[in-house]
Design a protein that fits this description.
The chain is α/β, with parallel strands linked by helices and 503 residues long. It is built from 16 helices and 23 strands. The chain folds into two domains: 84 residues, Alpha-Beta Plaits (2-Layer Sandwich); 336 residues, Alpha-Beta Barrel (TIM Barrel), CATH 3.20.20. The longest helix has 26 residues.
């Protein structure tokens, strides 16, 4: 069958400046560039990963959208028609990577942060201390103290295990398999440098990362890949993954061709076999079942680590979160429908789930209403794009946020959405040795740490403008947020007033 699919992008080469160095040919991992007597692009293969553009020494390459491919229609958008053509040729489910790109309302952009003016002065973060540290784990509702023989005051309340974060930003769960070992190394190094956590995702942990255990969340997902007692204990925290924002209600699939020697060891499956994570955990069909797993993990880790449960943001997320906290989880992770993924059916990514902003507000409110908010920390994920989003998420009720796509972008990702092909030109979502080595873990770690440092400074600026000197003082302070261009029902769900209304 002859393909009728027109190219999405047009690759233009300025032959007047091109010096025929062929660097673009070597850098294009999607086979778009060929060298005949000069560089000749095959537009159909271009995914707009910008690798060639970045490394062309003459800036001779430009990538543009193929605007003329389809006649205008407000209803039959070019991508809609393109997808139909693809399915007419393949008869298969459309796969994709990264987060939901559809133009659903982004509620972060409809919330504005308050600032102090006269009566309640702002704080200058350059001259006064500003606290960004936060602790994840179950908190007591009250503290009790005793005096010892020397009249010294001692805390007598027994505290549950806590994990300290120097910045309220954690790296998202991304498995070794979905991303490269060098990307995992970079995340682990950056987590250590910045005093935060990375998350192994569901693929087990490579031995090279064992020395970073104090900065690692290990995940227990439905496939139980790599889960051993040693694995659980090589961590600061353990997370049970029930759902993922980008693909609520479905499992995962790492194709056999990506399961090489090293991945086979970390996942504990034979080389070349598909790593299939079932949609449900086959031993969890109730909150009681979940509770058994939470306490089995606590037993296995000698009650020394918080146990988190990660769910995707769905319609009844608040009730589910309440059950999770009552089941004994110390942290609830909520992942919104714009969260990233290495691979997901496009129809699920683009149509299933709810925005993290609404889910977070609903969960925080429900836990408060039930008097159990202190029993667990809330981690919020699903397209946190900048420090403004971080501040708004914390004001809506999160203890800390999770960044995945932003972290990958910091390392070089261009959000081309082709992670599922295994051809990532930036050495991130690939297992091909010649591509993996494109990402230097040291450089990746430095870029990630710089991002967290920059966002940390910006958070301090925001706190100063609000007249508070610690991130904990902002948590759940919805009165410091105002909605703009939001309907009454959405404002009510978010628990915030419209802009222009005072206290
Ligand atoms: S990298 Fe740039 S200069 Fe080199 S061959 Fe390609 S287009 Fe020409
Ligand atoms: S796929 Fe990437 S490297 Fe290849 S031509 Fe397109 S932008 Fe350049
Ligand atoms: S990780 Fe790589 S393949 Fe995935 S979106 Fe980013 S650049 Fe593209």
């Amino acid at each position: 069958m002859v393909s009728q699919i027109p190219p999405e992008f047009i690759v233009k080469i300025d032959y007047d400046t091109c010096r025929r160095c062929r660097r673009c040919v070597m850098n294009c991992s999607f086979g778009c560039m060929q060298f005949k007597d000069r560089v000749v692009p095959d537009h159909v293969k271009c995914v707009a990963c910008h690798r060639c553009v970045t490394f062309c020494p003459e800036s001779a390459i430009s990538i543009t959208k193929n605007e003329l491919a389809y006649k205008d229609s407000a209803n039959w958008l070019p991508e809609t028609r393109q997808n139909i053509l693809k399915q007419a040729e393949t008869g298969g489910i459309l796969l994709t990577g990264m987060g939901n790109p559809r133009p659903y309302q982004i509620l972060w952009d409809h919330m504005l942060i308050d600032a102090c003016q006269v009566t309640n002065p702002s704080i200058d973060p350059l001259r006064e201390p500003m606290e960004l540290r936060t602790f994840l784990g179950r908190k007591p509702n009250r503290l009790e103290f005793t005096r010892d023989g020397n009249d010294e005051i001692e805390l007598s309340t027994e505290l549950q295990p806590q994990v300290k974060l120097d910045v309220p930003i954690v790296f998202a769960a991304m498995s070794y398999g979905a991303i490269s070992l060098n990307a995992h190394r970079a995340l682990a190094m950056a987590a250590k440098n910045s005093g935060t956590l990375m998350n192994t995702g569901e693929g087990g942990i490579h031995k090279d990362l064992h020395s970073y255990a104090d900065n690692i969340i290990v995940q227990v997902a439905s496939g139980r890949f790599g889960v051993t007692s040693e694995y659980l204990n090589t961590s600061a925290m353990v997370e049970i993954k029930i759902g993922q924002g980008a693909k609520p209600g479905i499992g995962g699939h790492l194709p056999g061709e990506k399961v090489g020697e090293e991945i086979s060891k970390t996942r504990m499956i034979p080389v070349g076999t598909d790593a299939l994570s079932p949609a449900p955990h086959h031993d969890i069909y109730s909150i009681e079942d979940l509770s058994q797993l939470i306490y089995a993990i606590k037993e296995a880790t000698d009650y020394t680590k918080p146990v988190a449960v990660k769910i995707s943001a769905v319609h009844n997320v608040a009730a589910i979160a309440s059950g999770i906290v009552r089941a004994g989880a110390d942290v609830v992770t909520i992942d919104g429908f714009r969260g990233g993924t290495g691979a997901a059916p496009m129809v699920i990514r683009d149509n299933v789930g709810i925005p993290i902003e609404l889910a977070l507000a609903a969960v925080d409110q429900r836990l408060r209403d039930e008097g159990i908010r202190n029993n667990a920390s809330i981690l919020c994920a699903g397209s946190i794009r900048n420090s403004g989003d971080v501040a708004k998420a914390i004001a809506l009720g999160a203890d800390a946020v999770i960044i995945g796509t932003a972290a990958l972008v910091a390392m070089g990702c261009r959000v081309c959405q082709k992670c599922y092909t295994g051809n990532c030109a930036w050495g991130i979502a690939t297992q091909k040795p010649e591509l993996v080595r494109r990402l230097d873990p040291q450089v990746g770690a430095e870029r990630l740490s710089n991002l967290l440092t920059a966002w940390g400074y910006e958070l301090q600026e925001i706190l100063g403008s609000l007249g508070v000197n610690s991130i904990e003082s902002l948590r759940g302070s919805r009165e410091r947020l105002r909605g703009i261009d939001l309907d009454e029902q959405t404002l009510k769900l978010l628990g915030i007033k419209p802009a222009g209304i005072g206290q």
